[in-house]
Amino acid sequence: MKYSAARLLWEGLTGHKGWGRTWRDPEPKTHYDVVIIGGGGHGLATAHYLAKVYGIRNVAVLEKGWIGGGNVGRNTTIVRSNYLLDGNEPFYEFSMKLWENLEQDLNYNAMVSQRGIMNLIHSDAQRDAFRRRGNAMMLHGAGAELLDAEQVRKEVPFLNFDNARFPIKGALVQRRGGTVRHDAVAWGYARGADQNGVDIIQNCEVTGFKIENGKVLGVETSRGYIGAGKVGVAVAGNSSKVMAKAGMRLPIESHVLQAFVSEGLKPTIPGVITFGAGHFYVSQSDKGGLVFGGDIDGYNTYAQRGNMPVVEDVAEGGMAIMPMIGRARLLRMWGGIMDMSMDGSPYIDKTHIDGLFFNGGWCYGGFKATPASGYAFAHLLATGSPHETATAYRLDRFKTGKMIDEKGVGAQPNLH
Ligand SMILES: Cc1cc2nc3c(=O)[nH]c(=O)nc-3n(C[C@H](O)[C@H](O)[C@H](O)COP(=O)(O)OP(=O)(O)OC[C@H]3O[C@@H](n4cnc5c(N)ncnc54)[C@H](O)[C@@H]3O)c2cc1C
After folding, report:
1. Is the CB of 234 under 6 A from ligand 1?
2. Where is the Rhodanese domain (predicted)?
């Protein structure tokens, strides 16, 4: 079924009886050309592009829970392509271009909203760093503006300019950045993949791999054995656990990141604002809630819920930069498990096991990468070679010394 204004009008007039299922609920087959493990944004996008762009349609996405139950439905919905390094910026700009055409591509309303992202500047050194970053962005066609303090004040007068511990000295702005309704992205990609013949199988946990003579032959699941020509793993915070079943140890640590939503307010914040000096970022959802977050919880965990010290830290960050947030009531909060890589950049790569491919290490930033990650992973699975924008995301880069240390803070996940 094609979604359109005419269809909506027709269904409105006829009691909404004609809407079909958004995707099928098939029984798993005994064998697929490609099995994708993980029905998050990245796994579903991979399946969509495999079928649509590369013509590989005998594909299954195996999800242990439900579509959108992982980080794709838990993030703070921010998309941007404001990176500095060559290994990253072309990839994230490719992603931004895919976001800009996503709703047409999927025929699905993902509420892509390019309301702009503003990274606040608090010191002369930070201004220099952001000027360099802005120049790199412009070289790749991403667009960037450097604002002084007065220009920032005009756009967001409610910030703490006058009594702040970290006075605002300006901002780096990307007008094309913004937000996208996160779970609609999962649903849209699921629908797109399903329409091209991909089987999306929920409540199907992968419990092991069948590997013989260095080649992967299939996966053991809670719904039985499924054979596969190739297997792509895109399980985000569960990466280390799943790849351990194939005997691999990854340069990844799992940490919790929390998100918060306030009660609905009248339109207050025009776009996304980030406060690097205290680590706090905030935007406003279309329902009016302030959506915000801060640091990861400091220790390793697979628990999908956060802890109070970080709640306090995020609240302090919010109060420091935007004191009026203290008047808003917190509606809800939740946690998601982050696959933190050692240099803050992701992996999209083959493994030493023939036919087994890995996508992960997305840290805080994998939502904005969803379209490009899916596209590049589909390219790798289909052709065996990396997509031109993802050549740097190698698993062996710590051995070869080719780290992509975007923030220049070294190999410590809690710093990225
Ligand atoms: C609170 C929070 C805020 C964030 N904010 C942002 C943001 O503003 N912008 C941004 O760019 N990024 C953000 N991120 C990061 C982003 O959400 C993730 O990097 C990205 O969603 C990860 O990829 P995914 O969507 O495929 O993951 P997921 O949705 O987690 O998908 C992985 C799936 O694999 C499944 N799985 C795991 N093990 C198995 C198994 N054995 N068998 C079968 N299935 C399995 C899981 O159930 C899960 O559904 C945030 C994350 C969190 C938690």
Report:
1. yes
2. 34-78
Measured in Å, residue 5 CA sits from the centre of ligand 1 at: 32
Domain that holds residue 139: 115-177+253-341
Count the domains in the chain.
1
Q: Is residue 287 part of a domain?
A: yes
Cα–Cα distance measured from residue 213 to residue 175, given in angstroms and rounded to the nearest whole number: 51
**Which residue, 290, 386, 293, 283, is CA-closest to 338?**
293
The answer as to whether 134 is a domain residue is yes
Cβ atoms of 337 and 326 within 8 Å: the answer is: no
How many Cα atoms occupy the beta-carbon half-sphere of 200 within 13 Å?
30
Does any domain span residue 308? yes
CATH number, residue 316: 3.30.9.10
Instruction: Kindly state if the Cβ of 282 falls inside 6 Å of ligand 1.
Output: no
Whether residue 119 has pLDDT greater than 80: yes
What would the two tokens of residue 357 be? Answer: 């491919």
pTM to 2 decimal places: 0.97
Q: Rounded to the nearest whole angstrom, what is the distance from the C-alpha of residue 346 to the centroid of ligand 1?
A: 13
The closest residue, in CA terms, to atom 2 on ligand 1 is: 75
Mean pLDDT for the chain?
Answer: 95
Q: Binning pLDDT at 50, 70 and 90, where does residue 415 land?
A: confident
Distance 68 CA to ligand 1 centre (A): 8
- Using a 6 Å cutoff on CB, does residue 110 contact ligand 1? no
Within a 10 A sphere around the Cβ of 88, how many other Cβ atoms? 24
CB-ligand 1 contact for 182 (6 Å cutoff): no
Once rounded to an integer, what is the mean pLDDT over residues 341-353? 96
Confidence of residue 165 (pLDDT cuts 50, 70, 90): confident
Could you read off the pLDDT of 308-317 as tens digits, one per residue?
Answer: 999 999 999 9
Q: Is the CB of 74 under 6 A from ligand 1?
A: yes
